[in-house]
Amino acid sequence: MDTILPAELVEAARKVIDQNRAIGRRVAVAESCTGGLVAAALTEIPGSSDVFEVGFVTYSNDAKLGMLKISSDVLDTFGAVSIAVAWSMAQAALKQSGADIAVAITGVAGPGGGSLKKPVGTVVFGRAEKGGDPSDVHADRKDFGDLGRGGIRLQAALCALELLLPDASTP
């Protein structure tokens, strides 16, 4: 296959497309620090339109507010890299699409932008499913460490793809 994406990312995306196609499930993503890398991996797979519904790249807080309608109170209180925002992003992506499941990614890819509480390599994921209880939060924070910008984005994309698998455990 002629691709510029890492082979492990393409293989993970292929697994997501194949397994979700088998159960007739559509997926959506809301990405911040990965900047569309998950959507790019999914659409690298021929026939991905059977499964992939939409990808929102909401890199800035303004985009999160405008495109996903994230509450400014949530953003101001918890910050963009938080479980509250990742969960809100996943819920919004699900609500604004025809998807059955949505995964959101927000984090600090570096090299700058980190803090003591949220150092470079901090990434938060959220997952929402159609028919799920919106008060039952499915989100988790991972600390990848400073793997470099590309390394952090790759690891975050791989985790997000894993969360789109039908048998994925709750983040």
Automatic annotation (TrEMBL):
Pfam families per the UniProt record, alphabetical: CinA
Domain CinA C-terminal: 12-165
Top-rank taxon, per record: Bacteria
InterPro entries assigned to the protein according to its UniProt record, in alphabetical order: CinA-like_C, CinA_C
Matching NCBIfam families: PncC_domain (TIGR00199)
Official protein name in the record: Nicotinamide-nucleotide amidase
Source organism: Sphingomonas aurantiaca
